[in-house]
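Researcher: Re-running this chain for the archive, since the previous output was lost when a drive failed. Same request as before.
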Amino acid sequence: MPPRFPSTSLAGKRANTWLANGHFGVLTGILGDLDYMCQTLQLPRWSRNVNSCALCLCDAQGPFSWKVFKPDAPWVSRCWKPSTWSAWEGKSTCGLFQIRHLTAVNVQCDYMHAKYLGTDLVAFASVLWLAIFVAGAQSPAKNLAEFQKHLKSYYRSHSTASRFSAFNSFKYFMNKKGLKLKGKAAQVKAFGLPLLDFWQKIYNPSLSIHKMVLVYLKLNVKCEELMDANRDEMHFSPWTCKQFHPTSSGVCHADILLNTHCSCLEAFVLSTLSVHQSFSCALMRRHRCS
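Model: Regenerated structure tokens:
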């Protein structure tokens, strides 16, 4: 039995009275990255080929593939509802879902992990690999040095708050498993603009891959501009939703195309469900604004 507060103390006088004047908290949303959803919440693992999402019954391939980024994609009709998830035999046995009102519908994507520490890490690294090993006019080492010079100059002229202190090694975007940018979420978020500026310097309009990368970077930057313009808002306005949704759709589609192209060049790029979760975040914003 823990020690009691003296009856004359402030804490003692609060005994047998309502906490927070009778108000209480209700769990309405669970936020987490892909590993948390799988390991802790016991929801479908992201790497599965079938039923690979915690939020819907999508598949890696086939008619319900999550790699279709349209508002009327077939997998959208298979997004969970409280009734359908509760009746599903494969639903999670995690104790949290024993709470009466909680289902997979209460689970939300972690935008930071899905985009900045997910799709952007791989896509930006893919663009860098193309710029330094394929599109650059000099040797990879000299191309990398040129990029680092450009990055420092861009940071300085635009007073960028979150910076890479150095970018003088291939390890910043390449590892044994493949292509992946090495950085924190804030650094990655601020990396799109200088990367777009650098790509425009080496851009060759006669090459389709150059066009694809340019479109991807421009759409990615537009997404961030819309997010920054509404950073103090609780939700997007209907007008912003109309701008953000097709932009996010284009980013995800271009991400898959870029991924496929780099994979064909043996760059060992791996596309994950993070792309799908980023698009799910965009759909959620659309529904909240409607």
